[in-house]
Structures are given as structure tokens and as C-alpha cells.
From TrEMBL:
<dbReference type="InterPro" id="IPR013762">
    <property type="entry name" value="Integrase-like_cat_sf"/>
</dbReference>
<keyword id="KW-0233">DNA recombination</keyword>
<dbReference type="Pfam" id="PF00589">
    <property type="entry name" value="Phage_integrase"/>
</dbReference>
<dbReference type="InterPro" id="IPR011010">
    <property type="entry name" value="DNA_brk_join_enz"/>
</dbReference>
<dbReference type="InterPro" id="IPR002104">
    <property type="entry name" value="Integrase_catalytic"/>
</dbReference>
<feature type="domain" description="Tyr recombinase">
    <location>
        <begin position="11"/>
        <end position="59"/>
    </location>
</feature>
<protein>
    <submittedName>
        <fullName>Tyrosine-type recombinase/integrase</fullName>
    </submittedName>
</protein>
């Protein structure tokens, strides 16, 4: 576990511990939402399918649709 301290407001600090697995999943979630291809994330995580990776990073069907709508350059 890695100790973590976050400043959320002036003078307020949240402290706790976070595991490397949580960091890995969080990385995947944010990378996907910033446009990193699902195929690349599958390789990074060594998963065997798109559904496995999406489930792993916590992406729901609605969130997937939103990513595609936001990326429409139309």
C-alpha cells in the first residue's frame, strides 16, 4: 500500500492508503476516457477481450456511448 495525501480544499487534507492495483485500474479508466484506444489498453493489461478490459476499468455501456458521442467531430 502506498500512503496518499490529497489536498481537496484550502487547509483540508484527505489521507489514506491506496494499492498499486487501484492505481492500475484508475490509469486505465482515465486513459480510456482521454481517448487511448481500447485495443492498446487490452495489450497493456494483458486481457483477452474488450469486455474484460471495460469491466476491469469500470466502464459501463452508457459511458462507452458517451465517449463515442464526445469524439464525434461531425
Amino acid at each position: 500500500m502506498i500512503p496518499i495525501f490529497l489536498k481537496v480544499e484550502k487547509g483540508k487534507i484527505i489521507s489514506g492508503e491506496i494499492g498499486t492495483h487501484s492505481l492500475r485500474k484508475t490509469f486505465g479508466y482515465h486513459a480510456y476516457n482521454k481517448g487511448v484506444s481500447l485495443e492498446l489498453l487490452i495489450q497493456i493489461f494483458n486481457h483477452s477481450s474488450k469486455s474484460e478490459t471495460l469491466r476491469y476499468i469500470g466502464i459501463t455501456e452508457d459511458e462507452k456511448k458517451e465517449v463515442y458521442l464526445r469524439s464525434n467531430l461531425g
